[in-house]
Amino acid sequence: MIIEKYAGLSKDDKIFPVPSNTVCNDSLKRISQQIECLKEKKVTFHLARHTFATLFLSEGVPLESLSKMLGHKNIATTQIYAKILNEKVGKDMQKVSHKFKGLERSFVAQL
């Protein structure tokens, strides 16, 4: 019954209509205005997808699974998120690396 209702309405192979980016962004804007820490942020569909991908990768979800979830045809597209995550890890390590230099010196001195 539902499939028949939407049959022929879409130009692609989707069963249900896919809202435009503008519709999604407007909805996200209304939702983010209800959340105190997001009121001053510009929350967009692209930002939401990026956050979703980054969070899932940081929780150990395999790249192949995430690629399917995001609807990427090519896994190289999904690997962009992994590269960003790796860059962030590198920057975070640089922030604390000075603390390890002292430990390294004292460890070597004990040998």
From TrEMBL:
<dbReference type="InterPro" id="IPR011010">
    <property type="entry name" value="DNA_brk_join_enz"/>
</dbReference>
<dbReference type="InterPro" id="IPR050090">
    <property type="entry name" value="Tyrosine_recombinase_XerCD"/>
</dbReference>
<keyword id="KW-0233">DNA recombination</keyword>
<feature type="domain" description="Tyr recombinase">
    <location>
        <begin position="1"/>
        <end position="94"/>
    </location>
</feature>
<dbReference type="Pfam" id="PF00589">
    <property type="entry name" value="Phage_integrase"/>
</dbReference>
<dbReference type="GO" id="GO:0003677">
    <property type="term" value="F:DNA binding"/>
</dbReference>
<protein>
    <submittedName>
        <fullName>Phage integrase family protein</fullName>
    </submittedName>
</protein>
<dbReference type="InterPro" id="IPR002104">
    <property type="entry name" value="Integrase_catalytic"/>
</dbReference>
<dbReference type="GO" id="GO:0006310">
    <property type="term" value="P:DNA recombination"/>
</dbReference>
<dbReference type="GO" id="GO:0015074">
    <property type="term" value="P:DNA integration"/>
</dbReference>
<dbReference type="InterPro" id="IPR013762">
    <property type="entry name" value="Integrase-like_cat_sf"/>
</dbReference>
